[in-house]
Amino acid sequence: MDLSLGASSVIPQLVENYRCKSAEGVSLLFLSVWFVGDLANFFGAIWAGLVPTVIAIAIYFCFADSVLITQCLYYNLINARKVVRKQSQETSDADDPQQPLLRRHSSSNIGLPGSRRRPSLSQRRRDSSLPSPLPTIPEGNSVRKPWLMNTLSILLVFIVGAAGWAIAWRIGVWIPTSDEVNDGTSSQVLGASILGYLSATCYLGARIPQIVKNYREQSCEGLSLLFFMLSLLGNTTYGGGILFHSTAKGYLLRNLPWLIGSLGTMGEDILIFIQFHLYPKKAIGEVSSAIE
Question: What is the pLDDT of residues 152-192, one digit of tens each?
Fold first, then answer.
């Protein structure tokens, strides 16, 4: 189950970035620290000889992080080039004495219909915080639809995970292993323990830049709510998988860093959910974007 949740957790944010053609809503520091934590988690899990499911999830997380970071860097680079190109074009038009009307229009907020450029994501956030001159009618269906789609997506992920576990159990791929021989007290590897606590520290600190970014901008636009929902459920099942595997004292001590890294981030995910509730997408921002 945790493997299916982990495999699908990054996909919603990839889709959200592609839909917006921007990654301004995602903190690169959040992704970078998260990636370092996944790398430490991977090497530490191998060093400590954890269960194969934990190692498989760590491998996929490293790959998924690389894809998401690459996508964010790509959109940031493309959008930055567009801004520079636009500024250079406006500067050249303003310095051209043969185009006084064009210079006048470029410095004015009034232009021909359809001539205004689509505002950036940050500009739409600032505009959406302004009071609306016209009353807006709340649409219940538009508010309920995302939650309905997220719920159906989570149910689908659980169904796929349960089906995968049943198939693995049926063909004998997934076989629970006993931990009675190796209690972890005498064979505890210092390097694996250090990597484990490093990954736990990165996981606990990775979401802080994203939380601060959301607070400063008073917006969660550009973030996928489903991404954090799957992350919360994935961390829950990830830690639960370790606990259900064995409750021996030595085993729990050996896996303590991974328990802290998975279960400790649940509170931060809940805080991000609260920010989604406090900073909803403004209807005036969507309307102005559609008109322009």
Answer: 777 777 676 666 666 666 676 555 555 544 444 444 567 77
What is the distance between the alpha carbons of residues 263 and 74, in angstroms, rounded to a whole number?
Answer: 32
C-alpha distances out from residue 48 to 142, 189, 257, Å:
48, 6, 11
Q: Among 292, 22, 280, which residue's Cα sits nearest to residue 128?
A: 280
Instruction: Provide the CA 145 distance to its chain's centre, in angstroms.
Output: 20
- Tokens describing residue 29: 């520091």
> Which residues, 6 or more positions from 57, have their beta carbon under 8 angstroms from its beta carbon?
2, 3, 6, 238
Separation CA 11–CA 98 (nearest Å): 51
- Could you tell me which of 39, 59, 42, 55 has the C-alpha nearest to residue 241? 55
Q: Taking each helix axis from N to C terminus, what angle separates 190-217 and 266-278, rounded to the nearest 10 degrees? A: 10
Collapsed DSSP state (helix, strand, coil) of residue 166: helix
Q: What share of the chain is helix, strand, coil (3-state, %, to 5)?
A: 75, 0, 25
Q: What count of residues does the chain have?
A: 292
Cβ-based neighbours of 16, under 8 Å, separated by 6 or more: 25, 222, 223, 224, 227
Q: Exposed, middle or buried: residue 91 (CB in 10 Å: 0-12, 13-18, 19+)?
A: exposed
pTM score of the predicted model = 0.69
- Encode pLDDT of 40-49 as tens digits: 888 887 887 7
The tokens of 7 are what? 């495999």
More confident residue, 30 or 241: 30
Whether residue 41 contacts residue 258, with contact meaning beta carbons closer than 8 Å, is answered with: yes
